Amino acid sequence: SLHVDVRMDPVGVNPQTVDVWSLPTWADSILSNHQPAPPHPAPIHDAPPFSIDNKINKKLCLWTGDITRMNAEAIVHSTNETLNEKSGYSERLLFKAGPKLKNELQNNIKNCKTGEAILTDGFNLPARYIIHTVGPRYNIKYQTAAESALHLCYRRCIRMCSREEDAYSGLLCDKLCKGRSYPPDQELTLPYGQFVDFWSTGEVVLSGWCL
Q1: Where are the beta strands (DSSP E) in the chain?
Q2: Which domains does the chain show, CATH number per domain?
Q3: For residue range 109-163, what is the model confidence (pLDDT) as tens digits?
Q4: How far apart are alpha carbons 44 and 48 in whole angstroms?
Q5: pLDDT tens sequence across 32-59
Q6: Of 11, 33, 61, 181, which residue has the fewest beta carbons closer than 10 angstroms?
Q7: Where in the numbering of this chain does the Macro domain appear (predicted)?
């Protein structure tokens, strides 16, 4: 199961807060799901891009919901280079985190280049930290450059949330290229590949990741 170092007064927790460690892992979901599979389109890949590894799947959650409700070590905020993206997702996160976050981003940090990541406190959110990162815009002419930038985003987010003092941490990572024309299958394959690489080599101490 996933673990998070919770540093907040339980009395003050919003009843709609979702604890990341309460979510079933991907492996548990597969084992416990006896419902018939929903209709789906033909496979995109001729063969699975990754072999099934239950050790890794036990550290991974798939979740749909409002990221601002998640109580985790860190959540990832996909934004633009001036940290003020006008999207419903980004504006909701900034609003719920409170004015101190907006002040930190606009007056102290000011910008973040594509492929980079910046760490701030979670302020009024249940999450302890927010990792702000800028995903690339996709253009088939510059596919390799877009892939490299997206790799950097995920690598830096994972490393930021896998410090030794936070060895039992959980990271909630939303899609990093919302509204940037990135092919969905490629955008979702990349983060799983990054997590597999980091975890299998022992390069990180991150104990759980929620997508």
Answers
A1: 18-19, 60-61, 70-71, 74-78, 117-121, 129-133, 170-173, 208-210
A2: 49-210 (3.40.220.10)
A3: 999 999 999 999 999 999 999 999 998 888 888 888 988 888 888 888 888 876 5
A4: 9
A5: 555 555 566 666 667 777 777 788 788 7
A6: 11
A7: 47-211
